[in-house]
Amino acid sequence: MLVRFHPSRVALLLCFCITLFPSLVNAALQPLPANWKTHVMKVFPTADHVTDEDQKTGIATIYAGKKILGYSFQTAQQVDIPAYSGQPVNTVVTINNKGIIKNTWVVEQHEPILLVGIPVQKLYDFAAQFVGKSVADHIEVGTGKNTIDGISSATVTSMVVNQSIMHASKKVAEVVGILKKSEVEMRPHAIVKQNLFKPENWKALIGDGSIQYMHLTRAQVDKAFIGTAAADVDVARPDEKHDTFIDLYYTYLNAPTIGENLLGKKQFQWLMKKLKPGEQAIAIMGSGMYSFKGSGYVRGGIFDRIKLSQGLIGINFRDLDYYRLSDIYARGYPHFNEMGIFIIRKHFNFDPGAPWNLELLVKRATGPLSSIFHTFKTNYQIPEKYITRPAPPVLEKPLPVWARIWLNRRIQVAVVAVSLVLLMAIIFMQDVLVRRPRLLHNLRRGYLIYTLFYLGWYSLGQLSVENVFTFTHALMGKFRWDVFLMDPVIFMLWGFTAATILLWGRGIFCGWLCPFGALQELINELARKLKIKQFELPFSVHERLWAVKYIILLALFGLSLQSVSLAERAAEVEPFKTSIMLAFHREWWFVLYALTLLFVSIFTRKVYCRYICPLGAALAIPTKLRLFDWLKRRKECGNPCQLCAVECEIQAIHPDGKINANECHHCLDCQMTYHNETKCPPLVKKNRRRDKRRDDPSKIAVTQLEAS
Hints:
- It contains 30 helices and 18 strands.
- It has about 700 residues and is an alpha+beta fold.
């Protein structure tokens, strides 16, 4: 008894499996290896223990006694950024207490291209590039400043791992206090109004805060050293307590109203020409018994008694940062013992609109080689009238990984979109194109070449049954669109394929958009051009072999419920990774398998697609739901005419003339025959009858009489 294989039964079986085994596919973070603490401690030779991961923060702390040396954490516990497989690449990252990444250790990944394609060592080498980077750095995959090399042919994985490691590291650094959000955010610097000048005297500049000063008496200095070893050194006598230790005046010179009034027009213009873009200048003037320059200052040294600070930045001045200030032009200025102009170099990123401090260091010697220091601080804030503050930046939410990928590959996206529009136009215009066989053959041949070289080998746009498993498991678990948006080309192809399956069936993808299918077809077409003998199986055998690909699909799906990794390895029944994704750069047994399938296609059209391909089986199941059937047939098709069934190179037409949509690749060859009046037997017969009537006058008269 002949038992036919019905794909609809496969669909019911799959639905049953989905209902029965949902608990098997819930993605969960795998436990760390038992030796993970030993691995982490190797980074810090002086460490003596590592805590367990905190249940709330997921951070393990590394200690040497009571001193914290660093922190270790899993990226998958800190940020939820799924990779192309739908699951995150989990990396154990170790940072020191300064925020420097000391080690990266990839402990879990499910990327298909890394499981059975690219050696996983390349992922380990990629992650190792982060060692030595600061958590405050902005690292990108690519070329240029603050970049790292990506993994060839695994760009999506590279970008995801980069974002996972850096985002997780910054998050942990903020939790433990290494970074503060206010320090990470970029603040726009104030802009000095260079066209604002108003004549002012010394008293007015002091009055509005343009010039600030610090007055120290000897008693104040003595008080600062009380309780130290220098408490009795250089102490003022009672009658000297109120004597001036130092009067220190200081100001910011880049503002014209301050600088030009203080230095005079020519000297101010000279200074502005001396300053390079991004550099600032201040003036310091002092009188009293204490010199802010210091007697120990020598050519080539550092001014060790004064220092400027702004936020976390400390600025010491060298001799090359100093210009002698010989005269002051503002009326009413006091006498000074010493004056100087000091340059703040660009690399300090000084903000003229932010407060800054001038620090004066006072030293008292307690022995030939020992001294005690005390620092006196005073602050400065430029008057608002001299500056313009840019509007604070609008803090935009950073683009998700998938959006950045689409933006970076926008040209590729545009090319694929145009090609899909062209294919849709071909389908809609098929009744017109099939009447021009040569045009359609050339158009189809060109499209297959595009599919193989651009979609396949260049864009790596080869759909796989693994994508079906990923989608199915996402529906059963936590569905997220961003998982499927990671690869623009794959997403566009899947969207187009899903739409065309519901409209016309699987044939649009299998016949036009599958790179491996295109490779087989082009090889077979060349073989036919070379007159290589072709072999076809009897239809009864051919029909039973259809079932093989559905059995393979069921087996792979069952494995995926037990283990996604195991199913991905078993999915090597697809030669797509070897021939398309990796262009035959693999172990010899994978290459031999792919080449064998291609060799067979020399003698028989698309053997793999017809009998083995689990992806084709998966796409054939929803083909039963298609809305349209645009492939035309006549009542004579199958009985008596067998021409299309004989000519169909993948044997998708039954002997009874019916086209099997589950096996059809929509090549349109049968439609070219259907419209060919010199080839299609029913049309040829019809035309002969018409010609006979035209040649027989009596039949013409009868026809006219019947018409009247």
